[in-house]
Design goal:
The chain is of the alpha/beta class. It has four domains: 1-68, no CATH class; 72-158, no CATH class; 171-375, P-loop containing nucleotide triphosphate hydrolases (Rossmann fold); 380-474. Helix content is 48%, strand content 13%. It contains 22 helices and eleven strands. The strands form four sheets. Strands 4-7-10-3-11 form a five-stranded parallel sheet. A two-stranded antiparallel ribbon has the order 1-2. A two-stranded antiparallel sheet has the order 5-6. α5 runs antiparallel to α6 (108-119).
């Protein structure tokens, strides 16, 4: 025996003329100006009470309804079909929700409200058209009610953050490279290269003074389109780590930096079995947590410091469209995830002797990175621009400090200095000379960072190349 709700739903699918015919035949004193919904409600109640047989309704002879104003029954029937399709779509979505979480099954009574809500939609017969906004509003409310049990189940399971990350993070805009980075980039056909902008709430802060170059941006935007992994190699202070961070910031992605050392294990970065509330569970490490979170930039920093055997776990994850069974579940790369490695080497070890602890990388791992990009120091013009933008100093002072950096870099090549000062150290020096004596500023921001064997060369550079009068006149 069908319920009243089921009868209303089935009768709503009948043409308007059939409904009117059934109503006229079954009700001995019919009212001519009733709406189709009102007649359906009367017929469903009559069948439920045994006054009318269901087949009398479904097989009734069609009749035209006489009203004060002409009615376009084709539009009325089309409106019914729209409502029926909306009902079918909403019921399909409800079924998907039930599959996502078994606990939703216990709320079948709540899902039944969806059927009642859609069946009660009013069709504006006076205007002879469907009120689309009213239909959309009612369907949206009905679907929200259907999802309510799933929402409550997620809250009770304490999984709100996970579900939010998986469902809410998406591309919000597509812009030109110039609009995002201030650098015009076009492909071989002369078409502007575009940038996907995401909305991850954990995206790092944007540094408006960061200097972008055409060469590096091309590699980053190519990987955005292909999902390919990149290896950043080069001397300390060439901007490898900050490039990854600022790309995440500018494109609205989250940023996870994983620092590797000689004692790093796969359990540290991928995850391991552990106790949680007295139960034995697999706990994802930082890498897997970021790898399965949409729109995240992952930086594997100083990766050549780690043991090759402990890095082998990465091989499967770094494959295109990877799906790796790990920790008792299949781990997949989430949409928008980019993996970069940053290292002082290019994967083939350190021949200079300046980066102790680095190792030659397993070729299988390096092969997972589509391109190896050698980072070099910015041009003098770009470094001067960077110092001026970050410290607000004038061009004369910025050029003088960049000249000092280049002298130090030359001394690195002759092995008089172990490492050249980074651009960050140069910024710190400019800020320090506004409050400290020049000698003290040099010692605390530049010389003190170097090993003892570099001290003599750095002191000689201070004495021979620093122009105190120029500095003092431009502070």
């Amino acid at each position: 025996m069908k319920t009243v709700t089921e009868l209303r739903r089935d009768f709503a699918r009948l043409p308007h003329t059939t409904v009117f015919g059934a109503y006229t035949q079954c009700n001995h004193t019919p009212v001519a100006n009733l709406t189709k919904t009102e007649m359906i409600n009367w017929l469903a109640d009559a069948v439920s009470m045994g006054l009318v047989n269901e087949s009398q309704v479904t097989r009734a002879a069609p009749m035209q309804q006489s009203t004060a104003q002409p009615v376009d029954y084709a539009k009325v029937d089309a409106a019914s079909q729209v409502a029926n399709r909306a009902e079918a779509l909403a019921l399909t979505l409800t079924g998907d929700v039930s599959n996502l979480h078994a606990r939703v099954g216990s709320h079948s009574a709540d899902l039944a409200l969806l059927d009642d809500r859609i069946s009660s939609l009013k069709i504006d017969l006076d205007a002879s058209r469907v009120d689309d906004s009213a239909v959309q509003y009612e369907v949206a409310r009905a679907i929200a009610d259907a999802f309510a049990p799933f929402k409550q189940a997620v809250i009770e399971a304490g999984a709100e953050a996970v579900v939010a990350d998986a469902a809410a993070v998406h591309v919000t805009a597509v812009k030109s490279a110039f609009d995002v980075f201030g650098v015009s980039i076009s492909d071989h056909a002369g078409k502007d290269v575009t940038v996907e902008i995401w909305n991850h709430p954990a995206a790092p802060a944007v540094d408006p003074n960061f200097i972008w170059t055409d060469r590096i941006l091309r590699h980053l935007l190519l990987s955005q389109n292909t999902g390919e992994n990149l290896w950043f190699g080069g001397d300390k202070g060439t901007g490898k780590s900050e490039t990854a961070r600022q790309f995440a910031a500018m494109t609205g992605r989250a940023y996870t930096r994983i620092n590797f050392h000689k004692y790093t294990t796969a359990d540290d970065y991928a995850g391991a079995i552990g106790l949680e509330n007295g139960a034995t569970v697999f706990k994802r490490g930082d890498f897997l947590t970021a790898f399965t979170c949409p729109s995240t930039v992952i930086l594997l920093d100083e990766v050549s410091n780690a043991d090759q055997g402990e890095l082998a776990t990465l091989n499967g994850f770094l494959e295109p469209n990877s799906a790796v069974s790990y920790g008792g579940a299949v781990q997949r790369r989430a949409p928008g995830v980019l993996v970069f490695a940053a290292d002082n080497t290019l994967g083939n070890g350190d021949s200079s002797g300046r980066y102790a602890g680095t190792r030659t990388m397993n070729s299988a791992l390096v092969d997972r990175f589509a391109r190896i990009i050698k980072f070099t120091y910015l041009s003098k013009t770009d470094e001067v621009n960077a110092l001026m933008r970050h410290t607000k100093c004038n061009i004369d002072l910025a050029e003088h400090v960049v000249d000092l950096l280049n002298v130090c870099r030359a001394k690195v090549q002759t092995s008089d200095i172990i490492d050249a000062p980074s651009i960050r150290s140069a910024m710190a020096f400019i800020r320090a000379i506004k409050f400290l004596p020049i000698e003290d500023a040099w010692a605390s921001t530049i010389a003190a960072r170097q090993p003892d064997e570099s001290a003599a060369a750095l002191e000689a550079i201070r004495c021979a190349y620093i122009d105190e009068s120029l500095i003092n006149s431009n502070i």
